[in-house]
Design brief:
single chain; alpha/beta; Rossmann fold; 4 domains; 8-stranded mixed β-sheet; 8 strands; 53% helix; 10% strand; elongated
């Protein structure tokens, strides 16, 4: 039996997958049980929901410091911090976990307000009446919901501390709830592919991006956070490490602006400080909690007048910083991956994101450029390596009509490389043209030169037009947020029609092509003779 190249790769892949499943089955990754975990039952939609928590007890005046964990780091990352507070400040400390399901295994809501309600029920069940609340990362959003005037029994909360906390939606990822949720939804197939399609040797089970995490961020609605922050009257301390790679300092600064009674304190530290060096924040926390007990710290009512006036100002989207770092890299990668689905959609999406002000034009162009280059050179190499037989195999034979290749071959003989440039601007011709270039073994450097020149013209044009047209349309997304996903689809379709239909109508050639296409459509579906058209 003669093995082909792809046989070797398939055999290697199957061998690695088999080894991966062997490791997972016989050497499973088991979470180490945390010491001191207790469980309390609460009610959700008439069903019993078990909620775990860790309680570090100490005899004092009955006030409990409740630390709400981040979904990325988890409650275990707070244990050194909580133990240090319990030992050094001699305080009762409670770390509630986020429940995942009912006793019967039914799903429950993972929304911020629902989780705030779960924690409130835990406090009521444990008869906790006085609370100093601390929110870490995502847990800061839950803490804000608990402390705000929109939450029931808010009088239980004596103070609020936000540690590396998330904040308003304008400073979260792309700055728009609909855009963010759309991108987050892609985590489901990526996570599924990683879990079942890659030989990860069990690594999937120890990394954070699993189903509970994805469900949490998909149900994370931060559109209410601004109003919630404005309704908080309690004293607030904001702690933020300057080298935090998860949450930008601008988030803490905006929270500080919206909370005129708040104190913002920073350190030259990373997001991991809460676990590896918890005592770094203890002095600030001790000063703040003593001030709360002695009524020496500000509340909203007696905050400085200038800060109160500043907190009433609207958020200025024009001053919002463009994304950077890891987020920028992810967005460029996503645009590159979108080109696998449709090059036009990728460029239009890039233009809309540029119009929103969170992604620089050149980075959007770079993401689309990289994706398109990889995909189309792959098509050329496919044609060159496999040759004519590939035309009769699925799914290629579904994408190219029998007569297309013959026409393109004739065109290549007459025009050569010019076709590579022109087809970039004619929908439906790129794939067969690039495949034909490979099958005919066209000089690769010549192909690449004409192809890159066409991209340098086409990509900025597509993204620029999409950004220009999309800029005024994005206003309606903010006004009608409940229908934003439909507005996005309508905007994308309108931009596509303008680029592909209305702009070509401005030229004689474009109008002639449209008449010919309309004639063929009538002839095909209505039986009218094309020659009968005036």
């Amino acid at each position: 039996m003669i093995f082909k190249k792809w046989h070797v790769f398939v055999l290697l892949y199957l061998s690695m997958m088999g080894l991966s499943w062997f490791v997972q089955i016989f050497f499973p990754v088991a979470d180490k049980p945390l010491a001191g975990v207790e469980t309390v039952m609460i009610t959700h939609d008439e069903f019993q929901v078990p909620v775990e928590y860790i309680h570090y007890q100490h005899e004092d005046d009955g006030t409990v410091i409740v630390i709400i964990p981040d979904i990325n780091f988890g409650p275990e990352s707070l244990i050194p911090f909580a133990a240090y507070i319990n030992r050094e400040l001699q305080k009762n400390v409670l770390i509630p976990f986020f429940p995942e399901s009912t006793v019967r295994g039914d799903r429950i809501s993972y929304s911020i307000n629902s989780r705030a309600g779960y924690i409130q029920q835990v406090l009521d069940t444990l008869s906790i009446r006085k609370v100093d609340l601390i929110g870490h990362g995502y847990g800061g959003l839950v803490a804000i919901a608990l402390a705000s005037g929109h939450s029931e029994n808010a009088t239980l909360i004596q103070s609020l501390t936000l540690l590396s906390s998330l904040g308003v939606v304008e400073l979260q990822f792309l700055g728009n709830h609909t855009f963010n949720r759309t991108i987050y939804s892609f985590l489901y197939p990526v996570s599924w592919l990683f879990k079942w399609g890659l030989p990860h040797m069990g690594y999937y089970h120890i990394q954070p991006i699993q189903q509970p995490y994805i469900r949490s961020i998909l149900q994370m609605d931060q559109r209410e956070v601004r109003e919630q922050l404005k309704s908080i009257n309690q004293p607030v301390l904001i702690l933020h490490p300057l080298n935090d790679k998860q949450v930008s300092l601008s988030v803490a600064e905006e929270n500080h602006r919206l909370l005129p009674q708040s104190y913002l304190m920073t350190h030259e530290a990373s997001e991991n400080t809460i676990y590896y060096d918890p005592e770094k924040w203890i002095n600030h926390l001790q000063w703040f909690l003593e001030g709360v007990e002695n009524n020496d710290v500000a509340i909203r009512e007696n905050a400085h007048v200038l800060r109160i006036e500043l907190s009433k100002d609207d958020f200025d989207a024009a001053e919002m910083r463009s994304i950077g770092g890891k987020t920028l890299l992810i967005m460029v990668l996503i645009l590159a991956l979108f080109t696998l689905v449709s090059e036009d959609i990728a460029c239009i999406s890039g233009g809309l994101i540029v119009a929103s002000g969170v992604l620089p034009f050149w980075f959007a162009m770079f993401g689309c450029f990289v994706g398109i280059v990889i995909v189309n050179i792959g098509v050329y190499v496919l044609g060159r390596e496999v040759g004519n037989p590939i035309l009769y195999k699925k799914p290629i034979k579904w994408m190219i009509k029998p007569g297309d290749m013959e026409k393109i071959k004739n065109m290549f003989e007459m025009r050569g490389m010019e076709i590579i440039f022109v087809t970039r601007f004619i929908p439906g011709t790129r794939f067969p043209a690039y495949l034909a270039a490979g099958i005919l073994k066209t000089n690769f450097l010549h192909f690449l030169a004409y192809f890159l020149v066409s991209l340098v013209v086409w990509i900025p044009l597509m993204i620029g037009v999409a950004a220009l047209i999309g800029q005024p349309m994005l206003h309606y997304i903010e006004v009608y947020q409940d229908y934003a996903i439909w507005l996005l689809l309508i905007i994308a379709v309108l931009i596509y029609l303008i680029i592909r239909l209305f702009i070509p109508l401005t030229t004689v050639t474009g109008r002639r092509k449209l008449v010919v296409k309309w004639g063929r459509f009538r002839e095909k579906y209505f039986g009218a003779s094309f020659d009968s058209y005036p």
